[in-house]
Design brief:
Layout (H helix, E strand, L loop, with lengths): L12 H4 L2 H5 L1 H15 L3 H8 L6 H8 L29 H6 L4 H4 L19 E4 L7 E4 H7 L3 E8 L4 E11 H8 L7 E6 L7 H5 L10 E5 H5 L4 E6 L2 E2 L9 E3 L12 E5 L35 E4 L5 E3 L7 H4 L6
Parallel strand pairs: 1-10, 4-11
Antiparallel strand pairs: 1-2, 3-4, 4-7, 5-6, 5-10, 7-8, 7-9, 11-12
Helix pairs in contact: 3-4
């Protein structure tokens, strides 16, 4: 009896490729080839590919522009920079931080060009509800925040679990100052952050299907981590309001942890007694709850000992806690 055995290289692409990747296969192939050309040092090859779809800084910023903030917020940009925080390396060119972002709701895990897909995302009106184990639960709109909290600019290093990094100036305020307004109870052990849930405005959220990802995206910190002065709520970047692809209109910034801990476009903060349900449930070996930057703890698929900077591709040795040990190391001792 004769059997036809189909060789693995004859399997149709649509049968072995995730749906979202197959649907956008031309974009992903172009990005992959461009990265390969850059990584191999083939400058001409990478430049040729990049020229197929080069966007200007103005086009990228226009694509991610948000509705103007309330009048009371207009005076906070640019905010005064806090001199206590230094990069220790060159600042990342704004266009690099604006065009290369992880925002799964719009692109899924395979593309960094969220700016191309945020056009229909509505960021106004916007409010953030802070509730749970607190004495004074409350909903804040952006105008409330600009009136009641002191905004500043902080020069922070940012480190992704994928080993890329950037140095950018965030505008915002310490998370602790917001939490103090709602007076957390002693029973509050964690602080959870929930991002928006608008599938009709976020292409990948709509196309990925139920159960694929735990929408809405939720992350969390322990209460001591949340009350640490380094934990920051950002509404701006590079002296201007956040762009949509960078987490507009309000996001969390936790610079001693990998970037997936810093939730974007937050709509709710809760203070549960137990650890919040989060991305960890899908891939616990890659998205642990603590997620501190630690060079001696490898990712399951790559080393974390070095990192490379957006734009320049320059490599640096990874530092424990992303170099912020003096602020946070005491949280993890004893």
């Amino acid at each position: 009896m004769n059997h036809h055995i189909r060789k693995i290289w004859n399997v149709p692409e649509h049968e072995h490729t995730p749906v979202e990747v197959f649907q956008n296969r031309k974009l992903y192939r172009r990005e992959f080839l461009q990265r390969m050309g850059t990584g191999l040092g083939i400058a001409g090859f990478a430049g040729l590919l990049a020229s197929c779809e080069q966007a200007t800084k103005e086009e990228i910023e226009q694509a991610g522009a948000t509705t103007p903030l309330p009048q009371a917020s207009g005076s906070i940009y640019p905010a005064q920079r806090n001199p206590a925080f230094k990069y220790g390396r060159p600042e990342t060119d704004p266009i690099e931080a604006e065009k290369f972002t992880n925002f799964y709701e719009f692109t899924g895990p395979t593309s960094k060009q969220a700016w191309k897909y945020v056009e229909h995302f509505q960021t106004a009106p916007w409010s953030v509800t802070v509730e749970g184990e607190c004495a004074k639960p409350r909903t804040f709109d952006l105008d409330d925040l600009s009136k009641e909290l002191k905004f500043e600019e902080r020069a922070y290093r940012h480190r992704c679990v994928e080993t890329w990094a950037m140095c950018v100036p965030w505008t915002g305020f310490p998370l602790a100052s917001l939490l103090k307004l709602v007076e957390p109870k002693a029973s509050a052990k964690f602080v959870a952050f929930e991002t928006f849930n608008k599938p009709q405005q976020a292409p990948y959220m709509e196309s990925s299907g139920p159960g694929t990802w735990p929408w809405p995206y939720t992350e969390g910190l322990t209460m001591p981590e949340a009350m640490n002065d380094l934990a920051f709520i950002a509404t701006g970047l590079y002296g201007a309001p956040l762009l949509k692809q960078n987490g507009a209109p309000i996001r969390l910034v936790v610079p001693w942890k990998y970037g997936f801990k810093s939730g974007k476009s937050i709509v709710k903060s809760d203070s549960p007694k137990t650890s919040p349900r989060r991305l960890e449930y899908r891939q616990p070996e890659e998205y642990g709850f603590v997620a501190n930057v630690e060079p001696d703890v490898p990712h399951p698929r790559w080393s974390q000992r070095t990192e490379w900077m957006l734009g320049t591709e320059k490599r640096y040795d990874t530092k424990p806690f992303n170099g912020y040990g003096e602020y946070v190391a005491s949280l993890y001792t004893g």
